[in-house]
Amino acid sequence: MSDAIVIRDLVKTFGAKRALDGFDLTVRTGEVHGFLGPNGAGKSTTIRVLLGLLRADSGEVRLLDGDPWQDAVALHRRLAYIPGDVSLWPNLSGGEAIDVLGRLRGGLDPRRRAELVERFELDPRIKGRAYSKGNRQKVALVAALATDAELLLMDEPTSGLDPLMEAVFQDVVREAAAEGRTVLLSSHILAEVEALADRVTIIRQGKAVQSGSLDELRGLTRTTVVAGVRDGATAETALGALPGVHHLRRDDGHVTADVDTAALDEVLAVLPRLGVTSLVAHPPTLEDLFLREYSDELATLGVREGDAR
Amino acid sequence: MTTTTAPARVPAAAERSGRDDPLVGTGALVRVALRFDRWRILVWAVAVAGMVQVSVDALANVYADPATRAARATLISSPAATALAGPGYGLGDYTLGAMTANEIALWVMLPVAIMAILAVTRHLRAAEEDGRLELVRSAPVGRDAPVVAGLVAAVVATLAVGGLTFLALLSTDLDPVGSAAMCAGVVMVGLVFAGVSAVASQLSSHGRTASSLGMAALGVAFLLRAVGDVRGPESTSVLTWLSPFGWAQATRAYVDERWWPLLIGVAFAALCVAVAFRLVGRRDLGTGLVPERLGRPAARPALAGMAALTLRRQTGAIVSWGIAIVLCGALIGVLAGAIVDFIEDDATLGEMFGSGTDATAGAFALYTMFLAVMAASYVVTGVAAVRHEEVATRGARVLAGPVSRWRWLGTQVGVAGVAGLVIMLVSGLVMGVTAAASLDDPAQVGVLVGAAAVTLPGIACVLGLAVLVYAVAPRLLGVVWAYVAYVGVVGMFGELLPDGSDALSPFTYLPGLPADEMAWSPVVAVTAVAAVLLAAGFAAFRRRDVVG
Description:
The complex is a heterodimer. By secondary structure, chain A is an alpha/beta fold. Chain A has helices at 43-50, 72-76, 94-104, 110-119, 133-145, 163-178, 190-196, 214-219, 232-240, 264-270, 286-293, 295-300, 305-308, and strands at residues 3-14, 17-28, 32-36, 58-63, 79-82, 151-155, 182-187, 199-204, 207-213, 222-229, 245-251, 254-260, 276-282. By secondary structure, chain B is mostly helical. Chain B has two domains: 35-285, no CATH class; 308-548, no CATH class.
């Protein structure tokens, strides 16, 4: 078994709305897979299909070599789920909720449970109705991470956490990955995915628009080059003549351009003739990649691609 | 309620008023609240007014001549009956009006009080609890505006129920002045409990706790009046005067109207509202004056599995429904002796309570059916709790673990079903024991437990229908309540309704013990229908999407 999750051509409709429209996803066993997309793109629908809560209209879905709809109970012994919006039982304390969920699957490792409660600074005595959003989320995180599940399905697991707890979360996920667990991490927080994910899938309107390792995705796109030059005007003309140079702009003695990977050689060849005083080149961030996939949507929203960064 | 002088640069409006107006935005919030509640208000008003109209018509038919009314007056003046009726004005000349005010008014005031409590806690506390109020208060809206809007919505609902009930009563032969006094009393009780509930909403930071406090106040008020009226008829006990129900019934509607007792209630409601406004000004948004208690850091060993979880969630509901239904059974048993004497004196009632045979048996068959409908109502709340669990996405959390849908639904439905059946059997037993005592006939224990047992397949049928509706069209679960109401009406008034109108109730087919002969084939058939409904529900639930 090399792939924990395989989804091919998945379609799920709610009335007239096609929430998933021929969606593909492959998550390899043992990897942390980032799952990106804005609200309504189909991330949560995908995870709920994987949990067997929603029934796929068509397409193939394999989860841990099983059918998530038919074999739900057997598969759920091997996975843990962390929802983004956690609702707890109002009259049960957080600690009781963790234990009830754990015992439904045969019990939790008490040492691990105690360690996670401590690390996430959770007060387990508070009643479910009295927790803040972030604390409800910690309850769900402890309940899921204290299991020995081989697959973790996370649907925006950190949307209510503060930056300190976000750091703890990232540590815990790295440890889980080091133990060989597979993680599907759906998130809005691009830095979190960039820090944790081996591979990434970007979903848009129910379809996968990009999928691969971060390096692969970066290879497909542009490097941002910022050069300090003696004569900005000459540099602008010289660089502007090259194919594969985009968004060229000049600001006094600096020129900035987004350069296709194939054109990097030529740009570097031209630069020495322009009297370079400083040079910065950085690969596109995940944010750049993500926003590029959504560039037309940004345009309709009246945001220029450069400004969004 | 800040009194600080406005700083130099403030918007013109605030400058004019000199300080922040706590009522800014009230008008808009009132419109939102009424829009939110319009269907609810309509349903309450139509249901209560319709119930009053049907009850008055039924009383008018059954007690058509003075002799039966006099007999009724004797029955109702017994302590146990007085506890569930009123102070007994006009018992000497028990007219239809006196009967309506004495026996029906209380059962109109109770639902109106419940409606007012739920409306106020919904607007004042639930909105704050789930964060909506925070959003509203962040707009230019005064601190007191949401409270005023919630109270106005509750007052409008109370007036709507009282007004429609008054219109319904105008269509009867009753004296309009008496009807006005009775309906004014109903509205006054609604206002009092709206006020009480407004204070309760400031004490606790949770809507459920706030509405429970309101309900507890309702229970105390009910008991004070009951004990007061038993100890001193015609409002002569101090206890009666400590209860809003007592104030309302002290108007002597249809007998010799007096209006000043209503002023006590209005003044008390105003006092409660004033206290609530003081409390709003003293606390932070989202908090209550009584702090939340902490729970256990880890679950006890017994809290494991779906059944334990469901029991932990549902024990409160099971116990409160159970106590209410069992108390009804006890009351019927205690009253049995008086009822029997009364029915044996009266041919019309003999007709209503059964066909030819022993009048006791007919009465017990009817009351057993009444208890069964109450047990069926509890069972429907159990299924409604399953839906609530799903809508709150806790169902998805549990189903994401190694819990099958059948186990998840089956355990919760099983707990509700078993609890409903046990409640029914216990209420039959208690009715039997008390009836055995009041009739001096030990055989009643076995007879009435048997009568209760025979209704169980009918309760299971209602459960099966609720599960099927929940599985196929969860949004339509409310329709099951209409069905329960139908089963109750055709069960209690079947003899007065056209033939065939009771064809859809399972209790029509079950033998009405102890009046009817025991017959096994309908019991088996109704059990089979219940099993089919449950099986269809479980099969459908396995196939549908679950709210995540």
